[in-house]
Amino acid sequence: MADASSSSIPYDTVASTLGVWIVSFFLATILYGMGFLQVWLYFHWYPNDGWKLKLLVLTIFTLETVQVTTFFAATYDVLIKHFGDWTAVLAITWLHSAQLLAGYLSAFVVQMYFACTIFLLNGPGIQRWIFTVPIVLSALTELAMTLGQAISITYIASFTQIDKTTWIYSLLSACTFACDVLIAFALYITLMGKRTAIQEIAGLQYFPSRSNTIIRKLTIYAINRGVLTAIAAAINLILFLAMPNTFYYFIGLLTSSKLYMNSMLAALNSRQYISQVSEDEAARCWNSIPVHVLRSEPRRSRVATITTNVTNSSVYQDETSSRDSKLGFSADNI
Fold first, then answer.
1. pLDDT at residue 206 tops 70
2. CA angle 250, 256, 257 (to 5 degrees)
3. Are 274 and 47 a contacting pair, CB within 8 Å?
4. What integer pLDDT is reported at residue 308 of this predicted model?
5. Predicted pLDDT at 293
6. b/e per residue, 61-87, with b = 16+ CB within 10 A?
7. Looking at the predicted structure, is the pLDDT value of residue 224 above 90?
8. Intra-chain end-to-end CA distance of the chain, in Å
9. Which among 257, 264, 231, 131 has a CA at the least distance from the CA of 187?
10. Which of 13, 40, 107, 217 has the fewest CB atoms inside 10 Å of its own CB, making it the most exposed?
11. pLDDT higher than 60, residue 331
12. Domains plus CATH for the chain?
């Protein structure tokens, strides 16, 4: 049975299905490994974070572990258990539905984390609602479409019938793309709007060129997070529509949730680095001012003393927590 069915299958068909399947799984496992390392670094670097934030990290990591495990099980089932059986390759089992749900649930949780961060960063006012409401609505629509897609593929039970779910999958990918773009845009506008606050917290309000460097770093981080996940969602949608009857869309589908995990963990793990950069910049700026200028400016002298003391390791963690809290990154607020 296996030999007869596999001998009539063209090479291009195998390459566009099983070949893409393996490549996608390979990329997903690499990104999962990167996320695993970031999880370990997070708990090693930030043991004093609140339990809510730690639970959030564990939830994301658990969902991604379920996703990569179920896809590995599906791969083993096709390539080993049913080797040469083409009907097994095209069959949709509960493993496919499980990995789809786990991946998009992980993405949803990360999107809610960034929505919460944007909400807290903007403080009281209408702007926080203008930014977060569209993000939450698009994320909830994405979650609803995920459930619909999982139920639909379980019902049709074959990749040969996957075109019947085109409208659901297209809306799902479009909502994911829109949510990522909105998050990147909102973070950019929010960070640029808090330029003065960041300058004061970092002690660089008298050095706009130096403070711009820090703000530029924060902005680049924010845009990169949204751009990477948005590109993955766009690739997913384009390949699904442009190349039917193939598995090329797996490339965007399987890697997107891992990009979400890594983007959130990168945001958490970069806090210490950004704080250190701001302190180094402040110390460098104040140390470059002649002593007679500092003596003639009592206020600047006091700020310089505070900035210099911040570099002391005994005060570093408290100062970092205070800065994060003022910027809305406090773990207790998540």
1. no
2. 115
3. no
4. 42
5. 44
6. bebbebbbebbeebbeebeeeeeeebe
7. no
8. 56
9. 131
10. 40
11. no
12. 2-333 (1.20.1070)
